[in-house]
Amino acid sequence: MNTAYFSAFAALAGSAIGALGGVVTTWITLNGQQRARRIAREMSRKESLYAEFIQESSKLYTDALTHKLEDLSKLIPLYALVSKLRLIASDNVIVKAEEVMWRIIQTYERPEEDVHTLVKRSQRDLDLVRPFSEACRRDLDL
Fold first, then answer.
1. Number of folded domains in the chain?
2. Which of 9, 17, 25, 73 sits at a 20 to 30 Å CA gap from 133?
């Protein structure tokens, strides 16, 4: 075999390997960026859903403290949010959301309370969504 052919073949192989290295590097970089964007989008979606659940459950809990449940359809938005959470949230977050929902239903069943009675209750008693919020924070930190 002629050494000129060997040199030419080696040069071509080196160029091909160099080009392939650039393509692979670009692919890895773009794949990593796409993955980071997907994770950021998922986190944003979770944060939004968690915030929506906190807002809806707080509104219903306040209503439950001072009113009886006259219309069951009041609970539909909260139930829908719990169902949405089942799609994307961790098991711990779902358990805490279900606990919040059931405590709201139980609160509706209790006698109505006036503002003076509510003020005398402990903060821990009134902070219904705290365990849910803490579970959400742990979920988002992962």
1. 1
2. 73
